[in-house]
Amino acid sequence: MKTKSLTLFAFVVVSTLIAIFGWQWFTGEDKRLLQPGPLSYAHHQIELTCHSCHGDSFAGNAGIEQECKNCHASELKAMDDAHGQKKFSDPRNAAELAILDATKCLNCHQEHQPEFTRKMSVTQPVDYCVACHQEVFSERESHRNLAADTCTNAGCHNYHDASTLYENFLVAHLNEPAQLATTTRIARVIDHKPLLRADRMPTATEPLPAAMNAAHQQWQKSAHALGHANCADCHRDNDNWQVSIETCQGCHEGQVESFQQGHHGMRVAVGLPPLEVSMAKLPMHQDASDKVLNCHSCHQAHDYNTRKAEADACLGCHNDKHSKQWRASKHAELWQQNPDHGASCATCHMPRLVDKATGKISVEHNNSANLRPNDKMVKMVCMNCHGVEFALTALADPDQIDSNFSKAINASHSSMDFVRARQNEVSASSRPD
Ligand code: HEC
Ligand code: HEC
Ligand code: HEC
Ligand code: HEC
Ligand code: HEC
Ligand code: HEC
Ligand code: HEC
Ligand code: HEC
Ligand code: HEC
Ligand code: HEC
């Protein structure tokens, strides 16, 4: 009898505890204990917002697929997804879908599975391309002896983004020199207007005269004075000097939007507080661990000197091998002499873009936009100064990345060799007998 009631008591206690903690897991702020495993590097920052992928009701895989598309469809469309849904709606490809349903993101990108998740959240084995492309071994002389796990070797093929790695493009850029004749990046000019008077000058009763004077002096030489953004445009409230990201957004909508699409700003996009350096998976300077990522992590009020933002600011936080090697590179040396030559961190990671419709030049603030697969950088950055084969070879070499491109190379890329051989094959077969 005694043991029976003890068991009953223990049962009641345990179930009450489970009910309380279970309820907290479901309703509390931090639901991470309910995850089957941690998220991939791509999404670790938004782990706290389960609903970003699962919706509010955990509606199953169809709901998750929709959330993937809400965040990624426009990016895949912009790169003209080489294996987009359209390709697979062609009935001739139905047999391939039976092997692997490629209309579903989750068949290749699962989450919470760190044991078998590869770079870019890919959860298929490396050799899965040949599930659909067996024919390539028989149809292409150059591919006959290749191993099935080499299709996506750096600079050969990508699954989605074939905007650089396709035959006609490579043919058009065969045999270019390593260094092109002109080697500068796109120029960015400020629209200088007549001298502007500050609308917030220090007064005798002002509580912060020294800070006011410093602000005024820096502002007067800045792009804001030249472009007519006055003190009151940022400081609307006389008692509070704090400036929010929404204030910048009023005039710099594109920069705020693209900032929120990359790893620096993605938390803000889902309503979480800004990224703190201490949350990073990449190596950072210890003494930067309490810094946060917002517009003023790289831009200093009030001088807004973009040269400081291009490298010094980055190196205040980043402390990995590649970043630390930059100062020793030719790119850094040349950039220090003339910022439109060589390459700063921003030249590669936050390149200047030209809007095709308006001709307006702006800086890409999504720091992840051209990072993976890294041949995205060829068109956006390297081709301003280097031949395509040189750039592809450098980007495919992990030692070049570790040394921040401070090693000489003998440029020859197997993709280009295949294209050269095929050009010869085609011209031989089209020659009249
Ligand atoms: C970046 C998107 C993403 C986020 C954010 C996310 N998940 Fe998931 N979750 C997935 C995907 C994808 C699957 C796998 C579905 C599959 O492969 O069947 C999954 C599966 C699960 C499963 C297995 C059961 C099921 O529904 O298939 C649980 C439980 C789960 N997630 C809990 C969580 C919790 C709790 C959080 C927040 C702490 C979270 N997830 C955040 C994408 C996400
Ligand atoms: C709330 C928006 C959001 C949702 C929902 C979301 N992602 Fe992402 N995803 C991002 C952001 C932001 C990044 C980081 C920026 C980047 O790497 O391009 C990212 C990165 C990625 C990457 C890696 C890109 C790289 O460069 O390494 C893949 C692959 C990816 N997401 C696929 C998915 C899939 C599949 C789903 C659905 C399970 C999903 N995402 C859901 C916002 C989202
Ligand atoms: C058949 C497999 C497969 C399917 C299905 C698939 N992906 Fe991918 N995805 C990959 C592979 C492999 C990569 C690695 C980079 C590459 O090869 O392009 C990748 C990379 C990515 C990237 C980052 C690379 C880039 O170029 O920006 C994003 C974002 C992404 N996938 C999103 C999605 C979304 C969203 C879906 C569903 C609409 C999806 N993927 C469906 C295989 C797949
Ligand atoms: C689910 C089946 C499937 C998988 C998996 C797949 N592909 Fe494809 N791929 C296709 C289809 C369908 C086309 C469209 C070409 C066509 O209509 O014949 C295509 C086209 C291509 C093309 C362009 C060929 C051309 O000249 O039009 C390349 C290159 C390619 N895939 C490479 C890859 C690589 C690399 C992988 C692995 C990362 C891969 N594919 C995985 C089905 C697949
Ligand atoms: C482009 C936006 C912008 C403009 C224009 C601007 N400021 Fe500021 N100002 C800031 C930011 C950002 C801060 C830092 C506030 C914070 O920490 O949130 C700041 C802070 C200040 C502070 C407080 C400094 C301290 O040390 O406490 C003063 C005073 C100030 N600004 C004066 C001015 C004056 C005077 C002008 C015009 C001559 C001006 N600002 C123009 C963005 C601006
Ligand atoms: C009232 C509009 C306005 C507001 C608000 C504003 N800016 Fe600007 N900003 C401008 C103008 C105009 C320029 C000069 C643009 C040009 O001609 O290219 C500029 C230029 C810049 C530049 C480039 C400086 C250079 O030397 O090239 C940076 C960086 C910048 N703003 C950051 C910010 C940040 C951060 C905020 C929020 C604290 C902010 N701005 C708020 C109007 C504004
Ligand atoms: C990771 C560092 C970094 C962060 C964070 C950052 N910027 Fe920038 N920004 C730069 C660099 C570097 C340049 C100049 C690059 C160049 O000259 O090519 C720049 C240039 C600009 C310019 C002038 C060029 C253009 O695109 O018109 C504006 C405006 C600007 N930033 C606004 C912002 C705003 C608003 C935010 C906050 C959402 C922000 N920046 C956050 C690094 C950063
Ligand atoms: C205030 C600190 C800080 C500054 C300043 C900063 N970063 Fe970062 N950066 C971070 C953190 C933290 C991450 C890690 C994000 C993560 O782990 O998800 C990151 C990530 C990155 C990544 C990897 C993104 C990805 O998708 O994997 C690149 C590239 C990068 N930063 C480049 C730069 C460049 C270039 C600059 C200067 C123009 C810069 N950063 C300035 C803190 C900073
Ligand atoms: C000539 C172009 C170039 C320059 C200059 C450059 N990078 Fe990179 N960076 C790259 C490439 C390419 C990658 C590798 C992408 C990949 O393949 O994963 C990379 C990767 C990174 C990463 C991600 C590392 C990781 O482990 O995921 C960070 C962070 C980064 N760079 C920061 C910086 C900083 C900070 C500077 C300046 C001090 C800088 N980079 C200068 C091209 C460049
Ligand atoms: C604005 C011009 C410019 C851009 C953009 C640029 N480079 Fe360079 N790069 C140069 C110049 C100039 C040199 C030095 C040539 C010399 O004097 O040997 C150089 C040198 C190099 C070297 C050889 C380094 C050495 O020490 O011999 C490599 C590798 C390299 N670049 C790769 C890249 C890659 C990859 C990209 C794109 C991610 C890129 N560069 C973008 C101008 C540029």
Automatic annotation (TrEMBL):
<keyword id="KW-1133">Transmembrane helix</keyword>
<keyword id="KW-0812">Transmembrane</keyword>
<dbReference type="GO" id="GO:0020037">
    <property type="term" value="F:heme binding"/>
</dbReference>
<keyword id="KW-0249">Electron transport</keyword>
<dbReference type="GO" id="GO:0042279">
    <property type="term" value="F:nitrite reductase (cytochrome, ammonia-forming) activity"/>
</dbReference>
<feature type="domain" description="Tetrahaem cytochrome">
    <location>
        <begin position="43"/>
        <end position="134"/>
    </location>
</feature>
<dbReference type="InterPro" id="IPR012286">
    <property type="entry name" value="Tetrahaem_cytochrome"/>
</dbReference>
<keyword id="KW-0813">Transport</keyword>
<dbReference type="InterPro" id="IPR003321">
    <property type="entry name" value="Cyt_c552"/>
</dbReference>
<comment type="similarity">
    <text>Belongs to the cytochrome c-552 family.</text>
</comment>
<keyword id="KW-0472">Membrane</keyword>
<keyword id="KW-0732">Signal</keyword>
<keyword id="KW-0106">Calcium</keyword>
<dbReference type="GO" id="GO:0019645">
    <property type="term" value="P:anaerobic electron transport chain"/>
</dbReference>
<dbReference type="GO" id="GO:0046872">
    <property type="term" value="F:metal ion binding"/>
</dbReference>
<dbReference type="GO" id="GO:0030288">
    <property type="term" value="C:outer membrane-bounded periplasmic space"/>
</dbReference>
<protein>
    <recommendedName>
        <fullName>nitrite reductase (cytochrome; ammonia-forming)</fullName>
        <ecNumber>1.7.2.2</ecNumber>
    </recommendedName>
</protein>
<feature type="transmembrane region" description="Helical">
    <location>
        <begin position="7"/>
        <end position="26"/>
    </location>
</feature>
<keyword id="KW-0560">Oxidoreductase</keyword>
<keyword id="KW-0349">Heme</keyword>
<keyword id="KW-0479">Metal-binding</keyword>
<keyword id="KW-0408">Iron</keyword>
<dbReference type="InterPro" id="IPR036280">
    <property type="entry name" value="Multihaem_cyt_sf"/>
</dbReference>
<dbReference type="Pfam" id="PF14537">
    <property type="entry name" value="Cytochrom_c3_2"/>
</dbReference>
